[in-house]
Every structure is written in structure tokens, then in C-alpha cells.
Design a protein that fits this description.
Chain lengths: 380, 233
């Protein structure tokens, strides 16, 4: 037997309380990890290397304003531009709002060249280019609705005042979002009466180095025109898109704060109780000659042990759960990926550690200062 | 072995001073078994605590083999206690989640002894108190008298020179009290332990080689027993 072993056994002495402490820490950390992950997925979308070469061009006023189709040739002429295509958010309704997934109109010849991370077979790609009413659907959406090649998908227009009837001619895998439906921009043009407008331009640079210059040139090119644009890196575009979510960050931040604070109160009072109960024992150990500092150290260790156990359960539980649960389908594609990253878990464990440490400081300090004589007077 | 010189302990409560010990001077020889008696609140426990180095006097000296214990630092004092003092309490104070053997082993965790040596000592101490067959029992599986005997084993396992006991029979029935007192007498006579015991029970006090009475913090008469064997008769 060692003193540490003795304290460990002591820590688990009141099994129900130890269990409840661990469970409450675990639950709170599970919640925190979930919130943090959600926030991260929203504000800091995963990006791939391929995305570094891409530039998004939208209307300077807002993302809802359309751009004239004639801009395409001008952009194409900018040095270093390897590919330009329209990328238009069609939206629309498939059956009803619950059956949500993203739908974009693109140029079939350029789309999978620009989004190189989305893998598509050459046959599917060719079919997409050939068939004007064809569409390519991400593998996750294919699986979600049990779509087969050749299935017809009818979308009712909402943002756009036209319906479209599409036929699945291909599917893709890979990339950060495997749920998207792409269809031919020409079809959208015709269905909406050839107004000659697009949502955004998507531009592929030949090299990462040329991206800043391309952005600057495109921005300059349409200054003082009837459709001023805002060109930015794809990543910046995604982040800006997220800022429309408003103060979600602040909201989630405050919820996390409340959870943390509550958790601190709960563990601090539990630790205070658990240690107060043992004051008499601590006094006796001191009488035998155990040093106050060693005893206080063991109390801190005990508290850390409980909090870390909760941390491992909470963070690990979140990690495991979001691996097993199809968040993608459950959130109707709002979170195409929901990964509790090592960073978030490390952060969670850090919080658990801090919690274990700070929640026992007061009782540990009291135990440290407790005089043997006073401790002996405490009745069991 | 112990010399108390003008030992005084005051407790300040608001504006009034409570005198727990009033200039107590006392000499205790090696091998004595001292029974401290006196009414409640007379300062018996306070005196015992100071001798055992868990409390400090307001003034005066407490010399243990010439060393003034009251002058030691907290850390030095803790170390000093672990070497020289064995504690026995009225309420046994065994740790409920630990077996008899583990409870007895506890003070040995402060020594440099190896696990095998510790086990030997624990077994020896428990054998001495007649509980060698209860090594693996938890306190709640023992009677009060047995618990106190385990506590005695714990007090002597480090082989201290001085054993202090504050009302060791206070929570025991007459029979168990008799057993425990017999054990203390044996420790004193056969193993040469110096014992200072506080008790309310005149019969328990009979086991001592010497009785002392405290009254309102002052030392009263000092009765030396002719021989402890007589008391047992
Ligand atoms: N922490 C304290 N604060 C104030 N007064 C105290 C404190 N501890 C003890 N006293 C006082 O000191 C005096 C002696 O107390 P002590 O505990 O030594 O008595 P005792 O002889 O052991 O009594 P008992 O037989 O009831 O155990 C009492 O009057 C008590 O009220
Ligand atoms: Mg007392």
C-alpha cells in the first residue's frame, strides 16, 4: 500500500458521489465539445489544399445580388486564370424543406476541374457535359435518398422563379461536402428566361502565388461598372458567408461559459463536501506525522483524477458519438461534417484539468491549514 | 524523559482568556505509565496534545529528552511525531475503507522500510494485540474492543518511545475496557513503553504506575502506585 493508493481508494469511497461527479463533468464536457465542434464547423469550414487556388467573385453589395454573364470573358482574360465558371445557388425545394441539400448550377465542363477534390468518373463527367438536364449528386445525398443513376429529381424554385426537372447522370465522392447537387447552368438560364445573370463566378488560378494578384485585378476591373464585384479567396468567401449567421459565436460562447461556471460550482461543492468529511482523518494522518503539503497534494491529485476521468468520458464520448451518428443526415446536411477534432478534445481535457484543480483549491487549502487538534474535535 | 516547565495554555475567546493549563510543571521518567485524571474541561487533553507535539503551549517549555518540542517548526515537529509518538484515541479513528492490516501499516508509510519489512512489523503488532487472525478485516467487521486493539497496534507499529492515549476506554464496555487496559499495561511492563493516558475511569487509572489530577488547568496531587500488579488484583 502507498499513500497515493490509499487516497485513490478514499476518492472512490463514496461511489455514488464519485460517479455523479464524474458523470456531471463528463456530460458538461460532452456538451462543450459538441458546441465547440458545431461552432468550428460553422465558422471555420474545413478546407482542402485545392481550395487555396480558388477565387470566389460575388456582387459587392451582397451575395443575393446577381452578376452579369458577360463578365465571364473579361475574367477569363486575367493572367493566371485557368478556369472561370458560374456558380449559382439555385436552392429550390425537393419534396419539402426537410429534404434539404445544397443545389448549385455550374458549368459542367469546368466544375470538376475546379473542384478537383471531388472525384467523378470520366463517364459521369461526360454524361453531365452532354445532357443539359443532367445532374451530378454527391454520394451522401445519393445514399440518403437511395437515389439511383437515371432517377429524376424535380425541384420547385424558391429563390429562382422556375422549377427544374433533372436526371441523375453521375455522382462524386470526396471534398469537404459530399451532399451537393450540381446541374447545368445553361438549363437554369433557359428555364429562367435567359436573363444572362449568374450568382457568383468561381475562378481557378494556375498557381497559389497568383491568387492575390488575380483577386486584385478582378476587383479593379469592375470598379465603377454597373456590377461591382468582390473577389476573395474561396476560404474568405466561406467565412464571410458564415458571418451572416450573426452572433452565433457570441451565443455559443455564452452558453459554454454558463456550462463551465455551473460545472465549476458543482464540482467545487462536491469536492468541498468530500474533503470536509475526511477532515478528521486528515488530522489523524497529520498527527502520525504526514506532512500537510503531501496531504494537500493528494487532495489535488484526487480531484484531478475525478475531473480527468469525467473529461476523458465526455470528450471521448463526443468524439465516438459523432463518428457513429450520421450528423450529416440528422441535420439535413446543415453539418456535412461534424468532427470533434484532437484540438477540441485537447481543449476539453484542459478545461477538465483546470476544473479539477480549481474546484479543490479551497478545500485543499483548508485541509492544509487544519490543525491536528481542531481536526480531532470534529465528530464523525 | 519528559520535562514540562511552567507550561501554560491560554485560549482567547473575545475579551476573556480561558486558561486551559496554568503553569504546569511535571517530570515523567522513562517507563512510566501515567494516568491523567480530572473533571471535564480541566485541561487533560490539552496537556496530552502538547506533550505529543500536536499543540503548542502559550508559554513554558515541553522538553522531550532535552529537546524543546514547542520550538520545532511544523515540518520538524511532524517528523518528530512520526519517530517518537504513538497515538490512541477515544473513538479509535481507524480508516473505514482500510483493513486492519492496512490501518496498522499507515504510520509505516512515513518510514523507509520495504514492503516486506512493513508487513512483518504489521503482523507482529497485530499479534501483540491478539488480532493476527483479523488482518484482512475491515473496521466495521470488528467489535469496538477489537477496533481499539487495532488502533493500539497502529500506535506501536513504529516502535515509538511515548504512547499517548486520550480516554482509550471511553467508548468501550467494561470487558473490552479491561482487555485494552491489560494490553496497555503489558506494553508498559513487558515492552518498556512510556505511556501517558487521559481517563475518566478510576478503574482504568488503576493500571497506571502513577496518577495525576488536573483541576482547572492546575496540577493537583501526584499518586505513585506501589506496583501496577496490585492494581490489577
Ligand atoms: N479551541 C479552543 N478554544 C477555546 N477554548 C478551548 C479550546 N480547546 C479547549 N478549550 C478550553 O480549554 C479547557 C481545557 O480543554 P480540554 O479539552 O483540555 O479539557 P479536558 O480535560 O480534556 O476535558 P474532557 O474531559 O471533557 O475531554 C476547556 O475549558 C476548554 O473549554
Ligand atoms: Mg479531553
Amino acid at each position: 500500500m502507498t499513500l497515493a493508493g490509499f487516497m485513490a481508494r478514499n476518492a472512490l469511497r463514496n461511489k455514488r458521489r464519485s460517479f455523479l461527479t464524474i458523470a456531471s463533468v463528463a456530460l458538461s464536457l460532452f456538451l462543450l465539445c459538441t458546441l465547440r465542434t458545431g461552432l468550428r464547423e460553422m465558422t471555420n469550414p474545413a478546407s482542402m489544399e485545392e481550395s487555396a487556388c480558388r477565387v470566389a467573385v460575388r456582387h459587392k453589395v451582397s451575395i443575393a445580388n446577381v452578376l452579369p454573364a458577360k463578365q465571364r470573358d473579361l475574367i477569363k482574360r486575367v493572367a493566371g486564370v485557368a478556369s472561370v465558371m458560374p456558380l449559382t445557388w439555385y436552392g429550390g425545394v425537393y419534396i419539402d424543406e426537410k429534404h434539404f441539400f445544397s443545389r448549385f448550377a455550374v458549368d459542367p465542363a469546368e466544375a470538376f476541374r475546379q473542384f478537383g477534390e471531388m472525384k467523378i468518373s470520366p463517364e459521369h463527367r461526360d454524361a453531365f457535359i452532354k445532357k443539359k438536364t443532367g445532374c451530378v449528386v454527391g454520394i451522401k445525398t445519393m445514399e440518403r435518398f437511395h437515389f439511383k443513376m437515371g432517377d429524376r429529381i424535380e425541384l420547385a424554385g424558391d429563390v429562382w422563379p422556375c422549377d427544374v426537372a433533372l436526371e441523375i447522370v453521375g455522382t462524386y465522392r470526396g471534398g469537404i461536402d459530399e451532399t451537393i447537387l450540381f446541374f447545368n447552368h445553361k438549363y437554369l438560364d433557359e428555364a429562367s428566361g435567359n436573363r444572362g445573370v449568374v450568382g457568383c463566378w468561381w475562378v481557378l488560378a494556375d498557381r497559389v502565388d497568383s491568387v492575390p494578384r488575380i483577386i486584385a485585378e478582378i476587383n479593379r476591373m469592375f470598379r465603377n461598372s454597373d456590377a461591382e464585384v468582390l473577389a476573395e479567396s474561396e476560404r474568405a468567401f466561406q467565412m464571410g458567408f458564415v458571418s451572416m449567421l450573426g452572433n452565433v459565436t457570441l451565443l455559443i460562447g455564452s452558453i459554454s461559459g454558463v456550462i463551465l461556471f455551473t460545472m465549476f460550482l458543482v464540482t467545487a461543492s462536491t469536492m468541498a463536501m468530500a474533503i470536509r468529511e475526511r477532515f478528521r482523518e486528515i488530522a489523524i494522518l497529520k498527527a502520525f506525522g504526514f506532512r500537510s503539503s503531501d496531504l494537500a497534494g493528494l487532495i489535488v491529485a484526487e480531484s484531478l483524477l475525478l475531473a480527468m476521468a469525467g473529461g476523458v468520458l465526455g470528450c471521448g464520448g463526443a468524439w465516438l458519438m459523432f463518428r457513429l451518428v450520421p450528423i450529416d443526415t440528422m441535420t439535413n446536411g446543415f453539418f456535412p461534417i461534424f468532427e470533434v477534432t484532437p484540438g477540441i478534445m485537447a481543449q476539453g481535457m484542459g478545461i477538465a484539468m483546470a476544473l479539477g484543480f480549481f474546484s479543490c483549491l479551497v478545500p485543499a487549502w483548508n485541509a492544509l491549514r487544519l490543525s491536528v487538534v481542531d481536526g480531532l474535535k470534529i465528530l464523525d | 524523559m519528559i520535562d514540562l516547565v511552567e507550561l501554560t495554555k491560554l485560549y482567547r475567546q473575545g475579551d476573556i482568556d480561558v486558561t486551559a493549563l496554568d503553569r504546569v510543571s511535571l517530570h515523567i521518567d522513562e517507563g512510566e505509565f501515567l494516568a491523567l485524571m480530572g473533571p471535564s474541561g480541566s485541561g487533560k487533553s490539552t496537556l496530552l496534545h502538547i506533550m505529543a507535539g500536536i499543540d503548542r503551549p502559550t508559554s513554558g517549555q515541553c522538553l522531550f529528552r532535552g529537546v524543546d518540542v514547542a520550538q520545532l517548526s511544523e515540518t520538524a515537529l511532524a517528523e518528530w511525531r512520526s519517530r517518537h509518538i504513538g497515538f490512541i484515541f477515544q473513538t479509535f479513528n481507524l480508516i473505514p475503507v482500510m483493513t486492519a492490516a492496512e490501518n496498522v501499516e499507515l504510520p509505516l508509510l512515513l518510514t523507509r522500510l520495504r514492503a516486506s519489512e512493513r508487513r512483518e512489523r504489521v503482523e507482529f503488532a497485530l499479534e501483540l494485540v491478539g488480532l493476527k487472525d483479523r488482518l484482512k478485516h475491515l473496521p466495521r467487521q470488528l467489535s469496538g474492543g477489537q477496533e481499539q486493539r487495532v488502533a493500539i497496534a497502529r500506535a506501536i507499529v513504529t516502535d515509538p518511545e511515548l504512547v499517548v492515549a486520550d480516554e482509550p476506554t471511553g467508548n468501550l464496555d467494561a470487558h473490552s475496557a479491561h482487555e485494552v487496559m491489560g494490553l496497555l499495561a503489558t506494553l508498559n511492563q513487558t515492552h518498556g513503553k512510556t505511556i501517558v493516558m487521559v481517563t475518566h475511569d478510576p478503574r482504568a487509572a488503576q493500571y497506571g504506575t502513577r496518577q495525576l489530577h488536573l483541576e482547572k488547568g492546575e496540577l493537583q496531587h501526584d499518586t505513585a502506585q506501589a506496583s501496577p500488579a496490585e492494581a490489577e488484583a
